[in-house]
Amino acid sequence: MGQVAWKGLFLSLFDYKTEKYVIAKSKKVGILYRVVQLSILAYLVGWVFIVKKGYQDTDTSLQSSVITKLKGVAFTNTSELGERLWDVADYVIPPQGENVFFVMTNLIVTPNQRQATCPESDRIPDALCYKDGDCMAGEAVVAGNGVKTGRCLKDRDNIRGTCEILAWCPVEKRSKPKYSPISAAVVVYDVQAKRETRWISLFPTCRMNVLATNNESYLKSCRYSTEHPYCPIFLLGSIVQWAGSDFQEMASEGGVIGIQIEWNCDLDKAASECNPHYSFSRLDNKFAEKPISSGYNFRFAKYYRDAEGIDYRTLIKAYGIRFDVMVNGKAGKFNIIPTIINIGSGLALMGAGAFFCDLVLLYLIKKSNFYRGKKYEEVKSSSRKSLSSPTLNGNQSPDQVGGL
Amino acid sequence: MGQVAWKGLFLSLFDYKTEKYVIAKSKKVGILYRVVQLSILAYLVGWVFIVKKGYQDTDTSLQSSVITKLKGVAFTNTSELGERLWDVADYVIPPQGENVFFVMTNLIVTPNQRQATCPESDRIPDALCYKDGDCMAGEAVVAGNGVKTGRCLKDRDNIRGTCEILAWCPVEKRSKPKYSPISAAVVVYDVQAKRETRWISLFPTCRMNVLATNNESYLKSCRYSTEHPYCPIFLLGSIVQWAGSDFQEMASEGGVIGIQIEWNCDLDKAASECNPHYSFSRLDNKFAEKPISSGYNFRFAKYYRDAEGIDYRTLIKAYGIRFDVMVNGKAGKFNIIPTIINIGSGLALMGAGAFFCDLVLLYLIKKSNFYRGKKYEEVKSSSRKSLSSPTLNGNQSPDQVGGL
Amino acid sequence: MGQVAWKGLFLSLFDYKTEKYVIAKSKKVGILYRVVQLSILAYLVGWVFIVKKGYQDTDTSLQSSVITKLKGVAFTNTSELGERLWDVADYVIPPQGENVFFVMTNLIVTPNQRQATCPESDRIPDALCYKDGDCMAGEAVVAGNGVKTGRCLKDRDNIRGTCEILAWCPVEKRSKPKYSPISAAVVVYDVQAKRETRWISLFPTCRMNVLATNNESYLKSCRYSTEHPYCPIFLLGSIVQWAGSDFQEMASEGGVIGIQIEWNCDLDKAASECNPHYSFSRLDNKFAEKPISSGYNFRFAKYYRDAEGIDYRTLIKAYGIRFDVMVNGKAGKFNIIPTIINIGSGLALMGAGAFFCDLVLLYLIKKSNFYRGKKYEEVKSSSRKSLSSPTLNGNQSPDQVGGL
């Protein structure tokens, strides 16, 4: 018996086995099934493949190196500094033009600071005192500029004074900067954001955001705008405006602006169609409502040494606009695996659809009972008693069963 | 015949065809199949959908812009510098508060260096000499500070000396820095890591790591801790401690600490549930065992010009802690395509399960032989001789076959 | 009737239902189907699983922190500066050794600039003038160094002059720098690119590009090369050469070079097999053909203050090589979900293959007509008139149909 089974198994290897189907002449279910099939097909072709490009393998890991360069000068006339001209070496920090750069548009200058003792600013609560005992020697002033010496300095006929501190003296005046003169001229700055982006994994040939042109004068004279989407030269003022901010307010308070470059490349098309899309957004606006640091500023110092070899410095609290160039990309390329997976899942859905229609056919329509009998053929060996009810008997005549 | 075939094909378009099933009253296999089905269902629903959120499309490309700000002062009293107070403009490099910032906690100062000739440090093997011939003029000292002039300088009654070099003189003393006084005060620094992260592709609305509160005093006074997970203000000392390092050792030797911010967002839930998770780790600890640069340090110089217009500089070898704020994120959003794919693959598995149970039914159980006959209905046209053995004959009565 | 149906439904729960198959003894189709099956299997096992590692979940989000350090000195002898020795504090900008660093190899020095009035460079078209009227007072010179004062300065017996400007005077000579002496020595620099990369999501244990060795002398003396792929020390000259550029040209004009580190890790294998692959490429070469900034350079200034407390500065236009260390990685780990998805899609394809073979069997081969009759069993209830043609009648004997 077993041997015959193996023989049968082997023979059957090169037979073609195909499911036996029952044709149910129920137009209702038939049309229902066609509808299911068509909708699945529409989803697969229309949505998955045409809209979502499901046949592509996408890569979002983008390596980019950003080169930025600023041009332009600004003229200011302030009480502390007098007439002064600012060029890139003065207002661009850091100078080397990476993807994050800062343009100083306003500043508080505290010149000639020396290591000495002086009264702490009276704007700092922790420095207020009535007697020397309030200033514990050696204790740092919380959120202050130095370390207390232990003395409480008062102007005559004042009860309240401020602690004396060891610090860079005189301390910075905590006055909010008035409207900045630099920003008046800042609109003439250009950000020559010359970007170089490369795909590592999918995109060997390097792509640029600079229009591939040999027209020198165009690249020298153009300014980025909706009309010139591939011109790499931006006006600072326009960027701030595109980010939806007011330039004057940003220039005096400082802020952070993100320049987002999106590459959305379909590598199945020509590389020339893979172009950048820019978007500008203010990154620090959320903070505006928050106590901690509305705007953007930081302190740095220029160090000098006088004839006696004593160090002194000019402390600069720089307000300005920080620009973060953020390159983001997605590249899609045809790949057999996601294609197969999407097709496969679609086919599997068809099976689910058939199962659903079966339920309708076998349990919901009028003659479901009859079809159930046809679909399911109950078999039992003579060795056991039949459990099947006549209606379930299917298309078996007794002699067939007995025939075994 | 062909015409009839096409007619049949057309008619059948709106018939519903359903597989004909054989009901094998074998409870063994039946239960086995149910078990298989249930386990697949459990895997699909429990693991894929509930645990792994297989219905979501996830995006890991996160654009982030980090703003950091430090506060605090430190007081030192060293032989080279005397009493000195350090504020942010002194110890934060670079000053502009990006995602990578360095806090100087220890330093070797070499003041008043001028371009001149002087003996190379005797700690450098390549500079040791016995006669002038050992110092080839114009040759740079390997891992040294200058270019050899060709002379070998010896203290009197010494056989061995060091080459004279053209360099910034005097050269830096290669002495390991003693315990740093700055770090004594460094624990009062705050890193006000005010971060701004944005999803480009999936997450238009910007998310912050700052608790959305209007409580000013909270954000001014809070410190990040397990109790205050959304407070953006960190104590330097705590960060180092959380990174599992000893602050004193790091402060004197320097090191790199990574502040990792993880966003793991389920965009199907409310945005307010999308919160950052911080983790702190030391990034340079591997190097501790390695010869090349345990710790972290770099050299920079402050340039001065004396009355005669001659340049001189103060060389500073800065030891300190570099902090790398690394933002990493994952956002998941419901998407029909992965959902279908996962369901589809599950259904396909069911088919595999059925195939497996068929094998059991047809070849492994006692009456497999009988079921095989039932499942496979052998058909042959009268035109060819039957190959089928009686046992494989299935449920066909001769007249049926002959009837064609 | 319905009740019987439900009874049948319940009973059938623990029956095993298996599709009834028709064995078509058509070796043609049988072999065709086997071929289809085998090719799908080959694709699934060979391509998807073995080649493409379809059983793995891959993660491309890599967090990396890069530490770089340069060593070496250079000696120059120029007219402006005389004999001068350059060390890391002089030519590395910024000094703190992050993933982007710049090595100054050439420079234009403009010493002793003061805020004053002087003629604009005559290389700037906008500054050329014939009479004072050509220089509108207060107007900034386009692409120039200052703001016009309104006067037109001419050498005697010249018709054409240049506008007087308020600026840092004297202005920089726009002369292209001659071949740079620094680069002559630059080949002795080492870039000690000591990198620390970490996987956040998939790779908890940190990985390094430094060979895990305790051999001090090796790591001190080695240089990266194809023979020493895990030595973290690079010669600047070699990097430029590997990037396919000429060092002398780059050193004098400047440029940007990308050092790409690729981690392609199979986390199912030992971590020790997860090693970095380096590639070097020039990132700014595209610009070479473009008008805007061939090469790479930027301006910065050193600020001094004289005895009278007047600021003056030395402007430096620095040409040099910027290095961008870009870490990119992919980690794959076995994951049940993609495995199931790929298997599932393969199985679904099998179904498609069967469907295709059915078409052949039922409509393309000689006896298709006969097989169609066998595969499709037409059933109709006595209540409606049979539409079926005899050939489509299938294997039903009248008494069966009448029997219901």
TrEMBL record, chains A, B, C:
Subcellular location: Cell membrane; Membrane
Tree of life domain: Eukaryota
Catalytic activity: Na(+)(in) = Na(+)(out); Ca(2+)(in) = Ca(2+)(out)
Membrane-topology descriptor: Multi-pass membrane protein
Disulfide bridge map: 118-169, 129-152, 135-163, 222-231, 265-274
Biased composition (Polar residues): 390-404
Binding-site residues for ATP, renumbered to this chain: 69-71, 297-299, 317
Region (Disordered): 381-404
Entry keyword tRNA-binding: no
GO cellular component, one term: postsynapse
Gene Ontology BP annotations: calcium ion transmembrane transport; response to ATP
Transmembrane segments annotated in the record for this chain: 31-50, 343-365
Coiled-coil ranges per UniProt: none
GO MF term list: ATP binding; extracellularly ATP-gated monoatomic cation channel activity; purinergic nucleotide receptor activity
Cited PROSITE patterns: P2X_RECEPTOR
Annotated keywords: ATP-binding, Cell membrane, Disulfide bond, Glycoprotein, Ion channel, Ion transport, Ligand-gated ion channel, Membrane, Nucleotide-binding, Receptor, Transmembrane, Transmembrane helix, Transport
Oligomeric form and interacting partners: Functional P2XRs are organized as homomeric and heteromeric trimers. Homotrimer. Forms heterotrimer with P2RX1.
Family to which the UniProt record says this protein belongs: Belongs to the P2X receptor family.
Protein name: P2X purinoceptor
Lineage: Eukaryota, Metazoa, Chordata, Craniata, Vertebrata
